[in-house]
Amino acid sequence: MSEKFMKYAGYAGITIILVRPRIPENIGACCRAMKNMGLSRLKVVAPEAWDPVRIMKTATHACRDVVEKIEIVGDTATAVSPFSYIAGTTARMGRQRQMVLSPGGFAEKAVTLCRENPVAVMFGPEDRGLENEDLQYCHNLVHIPTSEFSSLNLAQAVLVICYELFGAARPNQDHFQPRLASSFELEGMYDQMKEVLLAIDFLRPDNPDYWMNNFRRFVSRVGLTAKEVKLIRGVCRQVNWYGEKRYADGLAEKKKKDPR
Asked: Model's pTM, two decimal places?
């Protein structure tokens, strides 16, 4: 794939995020998988062991540029905050793990979106994968189907996803995509929504985050633009203003009736 086309498609800007990886050699192997498929942006969240020498053993000298540009961050929220579309890989299914795409389905969507939006895909620790707390930031989950033995090495999983992304990057997929809201913008909206919904007794105060997950799943299906997030936050501000005004008017009316 030519450098000119990769710049046009935005494909090379897709970021791989490894969340709490345990083994440095696996980080190096992921760098090698990415390099094979033309990707170079890697973030590593809170690695259990960080050893550049061990990483380079499996990355090989050909991938030194990928290794040297690795960005280390302390938590998942910080890692995903710049991105407008985030996917997370999962081997486990359940009620809290919905909106699941195949690797190919994810790749088609990601390659189209990445022309106008920053895109990232997350992979969890080798021994247990991504936690629900990590997946709450995801617009979609990606499940790699396997036979009876479903334990993929971290680098194998990265290679499968990168291969699908590479294959999905086609020049004839020239559809306009608006700028989606970043994770940072969405989290600000969710915080404001939760505050307002608690104030009007729509959410149960004992576990508001559980009920907010329904809104998160809805928004993830729709894919809000930055402009739409501003619109929703404006509505929340107006609801909050009206509630405070009604409360103040009620106090004033009560004082008129009972000046004591």
From this structure: 0.70
